[in-house]
Automatic annotation (TrEMBL):
Keywords: Lyase. Signal peptide: none annotated. It comes from Streptomyces prasinopilosus. This is 4-hydroxy-tetrahydrodipicolinate synthase. Pfam families: DHDPS. The lineage of its organism: Bacteria, Bacillati, Actinomycetota, Actinomycetes, Kitasatosporales. The keyword Repeat does not apply. It comes from the Bacteria. Belongs to the DapA family. Pyruvate binds at residue 55. The active site is at 143 (proton donor/acceptor), 168 (schiff-base intermediate with substrate).
Amino acid sequence: MTTTFETQRTALAGVVAIPVTPFAEDGSVDRTGYRALLRRLLDAGITTLTPNGNTGEFYALTPEERRTVTELTLEETGDGSSVLVGVGHDVPTAVASARHARDLGARMVMVHQPVHPYVSQSGWVDYHRAIAEAVPDLGVVPYIRNDRLAGARLAELADSCPNVIGVKYSVPDAARFAAFARDAGLERFVWVAGLAEPYAPSYFSAGATGFTSGLVNVAPSVSLDMIGALRSGDYVTAMKVWEQIRRFEELRGANGSANNVTVVKEALASLGLCRREVRPPSRPLPEDERAEVAAIAAGWSV
């Protein structure tokens, strides 16, 4: 029987939340705090979660911690069809992580952009093919940050791996995204705007139907307002939401996104929802910047 992945495709066409990974005072993963943050998202109406995403500090977690985060997420949601587990690193590690997620009930994995300094386009295909072929029953979503990758390469990958069902596209260029999606096959994949709410309106106008979000950890209702407006084609309202979140996202994106996670955790800390600590190479915000983040978070209906 051919797997259609319709449930997974539907889950991608919305707000794809990237939960933070809170740390306890001793530096370990705060399991209770993480569950509470997940429950807050789920209770607010967020249905699709990506444990072990970049906002979850994927590259700063140990293999055991990544497994723990996956396990906690699937236990809390109770529905693996809407959990998109982040996997990556070398091929054997990524495959082992994907199989671990599958065995726990997950139905999708997101493959992080390869961090090898020398990535050829054909090698990109080989890397993702090896992972996708190892878990043919899972929906696979490549995370694309490489502006040199051609859309035809994604089509090539999907020709041999029909379980490649969606794309998290994170190149900050809406025109390039529009061309890439059409070269790969606009209707063939679910296109997720991987640069979150700031890029969602422009990417939706070019064919995206979902967007990732780290801001959703802080203000789920704001992200839901954005997806509601975009689904109805109301770009005037979508841009009003865009203005509302603009400064918060500018702070996250400053200096090459150095404080991408830091700002989110600082906002959560100001609301008493988790500790502010992040792991190197990220760092906590200095005292003089914390007040602005707290004021923004306090101003949202959370």
